[in-house]
Write a structure and sequence with these properties.
The longest helix has 45 residues, at 113-157. The N and C termini lie far apart (72 Å). The protein has 387 residues and is α/β, with parallel strands linked by helices. It has 11 helices and 15 strands. The chain is elongated. The strands form 3 sheets. A 5-stranded parallel sheet has the order 2-1-3-4-5, sandwiched between helices. A 5-stranded antiparallel sheet has the order 6-15-14-11-12.
């Protein structure tokens, strides 16, 4: 597009001079000149057409002088529009005032058109740079808005109503929480009913962070839920999900998964741990034991892998606490990790608490430990208690 230049001068000869000197650029469509004969006329044109790039203005003019026009232009707050002021060689006081008031550059009369051409080219470079920055800023604002919506959508697809199964409120307590390190995260949790006696639950952590992890998270959650809700065993669910995710994985993304089926009537949990942090069983008396590490690999990593499953028995008052490594790997200002010992200490102190209170206690302790250090990873917790 042509650079739009508004020349403001009460000397009519300047119009002919500029159009003659810049005739080649005008013919090529590089420059487009417009003319006003005083500041008031120029201001009217600027208010009507908002796409002028350069204002070439004399300082001494009738009705509204160049300094007053410059003040009005500043009030318009158009950073990409540049003003080049023109005055007599001896009028350095006004020229200095114009520069102090934000003029891009100046020229003295009689105008050296070769020098003016260089000044205009310098102004165009600045204008193009500012417009580029404005465009990038608009794109960043658009991305920021999209991420805010994506964050709301991501939170909306996770269960948020607790207790989730009011008809079993006397038998089971469930709570969960996910706090993303960025606008969107790669952690997720889920739980859903299979039949009257069985509830499935899952916690997972996708490799990486940000938008790619969030997309892979949504795909993984949907796939595991759609498979698990059919009532297949945990090992069958994860084996099937793994085969599909291996085919769809981009940039070698994978996800650690702990998927379990809880028997409401007996308290038995059948589970498959696919490379996830082993959960803790918090006994009613405050004792804690960690589930054993399994040999299952990460989901989406190895094709045709046959996952195995194990069982754990929850007694009345026992709580199964699942978490992602954003908890234990949280760091403080001294680059120290929160670790498993601090987590176990909090769990022991809240063995009698309900699931929500236990999760809130862990989150508060991690936050207090990290202090002013920025959260570096998603923090997700899921707790199930047999009542």
């Amino acid at each position: 597009m042509a650079v739009k230049i508004l020349s403001v001068d009460d000397e009519l000869d300047l119009e002919l001079l500029l159009t003659q000197y810049f005739r080649r650029k005008i013919r090529k469509g590089e420059y487009e000149f417009h003319f006003a004969h005083n500041g008031l006329e120029a201001l009217t044109m600027l208010l009507k057409e908002k796409d002028f790039d350069i204002i070439l203005s004399d300082i001494n003019m009738p009705e509204m002088d160049g300094l007053s026009l410059l003040t009005k232009i500043n009030e318009m707050q158009r950073p990409s529009m540049k003003c080049i002021m023109v005055s007599a060689y001896g009028d350095m006081g006004n020229i200095r005032q114009a520069m102090n008031n934000g003029a891009f550059d100046f020229a003295t009369k009689p105008i050296d058109l070769d020098d003016l051409s260089v000044t205009i080219e310098k102004a165009i470079e600045q204008i193009n740079f500012i417009k580029s920055m404005q465009q990038e800023h608009m794109q960043l604002e658009s991305i920021k808005s999209d991420l805010a919506v994506a964050s709301e959508i991501q939170q909306a697809i996770l269960p948020r109503i607790f207790p989730p199964f009011p008809e079993n409120a006397q038998q089971i307590d469930i709570a969960a929480s996910m706090n993303a390190a960025k606008d969107v995260g790669g952690d997720f949790y889920d739980f859903f009913r299979i039949d009257d006696d069985h509830i499935s639950f899952v916690i997972a952590d996708v490799s990486g962070k940000g938008v790619p992890a969030a997309i892979f998270m949504a795909v993984s959650r949907t796939l595991i839920r759609a498979t698990g809700i059919r009532g297949v065993t945990p090992s069958e669910c994860i084996t099937y999900s793994n085969d599909l995710l291996v085919e769809e994985s981009v940039n070698c993304m994978f996800v650690t998964v702990f998927y379990g089926i809880y028997n409401i009537r007996t308290g038995e949990v059948t589970y498959t741990n696919a490379g996830h942090n082993p959960p803790y069983v918090v006994k009613a008396d405050g004792s804690i034991h960690r589930l054993p590490i399994t040999k299952n690999v990460l989901v989406g990593f190895v094709e045709d892998f046959q996952y195995t499953e194990d069982t754990v028995q929850l007694e009345h008052g026992d709580t199964l606490l699942l978490y992602t490594d954003g908890v234990t790997e949280a760091i403080n200002v001294n680059c120290e990790e929160y670790g498993t010992e601090r987590l176990k200490a909090v769990l022991a102190r809240h063995a009698q608490s309900n699931c929500q209170e236990m999760i809130d206690a862990v989150k508060a302790d991690v936050k207090a430990f990290a202090g002013e250090e920025e959260q570096s990873d998603d923090i997700t917790l899921l707790a199930i208690k047999r009542l």
